Amino acid sequence: MTSIISIKNLRKAYPGGFEALKGVNLEIEQGEILALLGPNGAGKTTLISTVCGITVPTGGSITVGGFDTITQYRATRDLIGLVPQEINLEPFETVFNSVSFSRGLFGKPRNDAYINRILDQLSLGDKKNSKIMALSGGMKRRVLIAKALAHEPRVLFLDEPTAGVDVELRKDMWEIVAGLKADGVTIILTTHYIEEAEAIADRVGVINGGEILLVQDKSELMAQMGQKQLQIAISDPVAEIPAALSAYALERSDDGLRLTYTYETTGERTGITTLLNDLAAAGLVMTDLQTKQSSLEDIFVGLVKEKS
């Protein structure tokens, strides 16, 4: 795949010595959806702001579509659409005029048909003559996306796009993002919602303390770092795990009626067959078995803890 954004050794320090970005290296592929995960203060928004030219880096370089964000700012900014966290819209303007105005800011010729198509894609067509102040929070988020797409960018940054949006609207936004990808738009989103990354991202990046901890294909990440748990329900409670089963590092529930066995999904052998035989030999009678796959959230929390 061809990289549309190339970030090399990017640094951002503020007066007083605080480093928001510490030598970030990142290649973003054309046409992908990259989810950037990290706790508050991790550097997500600073990274986006720097790529978009809102924040000036202390060191390193960024190219977008082959153009340098410092020396060729206008060319790079034309390629980028940004949807910020904050909803900052002119309340007395209509939806159509607000989006059209954004297109004009980039020097693009008037194109009502294109604006109408964007509004229809975002389920705003029937609201185009409504004033912003009359819209719900979810609709205002959609207007922000429409404004970011008005100048036909090739890259779209979504900074916490579903913050404060209910579950139903959040899933609508996921469908919108999938549609934009189908149109060839590269999408980078920051999110606190782990399920958002699991649902729509091609790759997942984890940032903490101004450093990229990991960037990997989502499915590979789950396969390589994920674990599964086998939960075993037994007929009679045990006060402690039998010594014959000590090699399995089983966890006992508080009531003694459930044992949990954790194993790697990438191992050649899970050890489950041997475990079940040894359970029977130890006189334990199973009544139920359940498996649970580690989620992206479990992996994310583990990574952040390792680096903190």
UniProtKB/TrEMBL annotation:
InterPro entries: AAA+_ATPase (IPR003593), ABC_transporter-like_ATP-bd (IPR003439), ABC_transporter-like_CS (IPR017871), ABC_transporter_ATP-binding (IPR050763), P-loop_NTPase (IPR027417). The keyword Nucleotide-binding applies. GO terms for molecular function: ATP binding; ATP hydrolysis activity. Residues 5-234 form the ABC transporter domain. Pfam families: ABC_tran (PF00005). SUPFAM superfamilies: P-loop containing nucleoside triphosphate hydrolases. Keywords: ATP-binding, Nucleotide-binding, Transport. This is ABC-2 type transport system ATP-binding protein.
